[in-house]
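Objective 1b. Sequence-to-structure analysis of Glycosyltransferase family 2 protein.
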Amino acid sequence: MPLRAIWTRHTYPSAPHADSRCATANAKASTTRPSGPKSTSLKKPPKSSALKNKSTSSNQITGMKICCSPQHILMPVYINCLKIIWQYHSLGLSHPLPMNLLTVFTPAFNSAHTLRRLYESLVTQSCPDFEWLVIDNGSSDFTQQLIEGFKREGRIHIAYIRQEHGGPHNAYHTAYANISTELCVCIDADNFMPEDAVETIATNWREKGGTANAGIIGLNCHMDTMEAIGRRFPEDIAKAYFPELYAQGFNLHNCTPVTRTDLMRDAVIHTGDDVDDDLTLLYALLQISDSLPMLTANECFSITDTQVRMDISPQESIFKRYAESPRSFARLRHLEMRLKHTSLRHSYRSAMHYVACILLAGGHDIIMDSRHKALTILAGIPGYIMYRYISHRYKR
């Protein structure tokens, strides 16, 4: 293919055609060339075809040099950069990177039957300022094929990581190591989001958020009634430390925390492997939000259809889990005793549960291992009674 044809096909649409610019340049050159007396006695010999082709190629190359002038190449790039900066300025962003504000990440294990519902809730979001990260813990169903099909549709930005089955704990480590956005939220595979969730998160964070806050926390709602699971946040509280809310009965079952990625990444790394998978996020969240407050929003961030068993009281349920994972809960209760933003009553209650869990785990140095020895001594007798009850009812 001739060089001129190649260049013309890739010329920026708004720029003048190469032939017209080259013709204009040649016309100007012919008008400015001095004219001498015409010779009638001598005539130039006709050029051969090879010389004509050489001349034509020279003109084409000359024209291409004109087409490649810096102002014609850089101007469209400059205009596009201005357009991008203006678009992000209109969205309230101080800089165009990162491209998205939020990452919704989902640990999945044989969850193909519920992932489509979550996917459909994400593609209908009123604000597209997010991306979806799926961590597949070695699913044996068609989860991978399903996600690949979603990616081919191109409706939202999707990242998919498959790893060997290691439980949600490993999924959290993988997720936070690969998230590059400022905020992140964990939405389980069997839950989904209302269509305005991302918009609510983005609006609240851009108006009130920043480095002085650890994130923003919203509500979980029932799928059937769309009512909040548990209580709503007090209307007069715009932000709060999560340990304060936790002492009042707010937890990860009735709340959806959206956290800063940098804070959660460091907290999850230092959680350790001796904390149960379903306690990893709670343990990390209590740590980061004991130093920085979180914005509160009485808006639904996540919808669940999990049916709560009414035949088992919450107290009996937690006692059963103590019997199954005493060491993990002992570490969690020990952390609760050390929190700054909590009540003395909650700290004493945590000390009782700490004593019971240590005894269930076969520990003996209860007081020596505790950083609040006086509080642990005061909680020793009621903690021992709790231990006897749990071991009699649930321990084999």
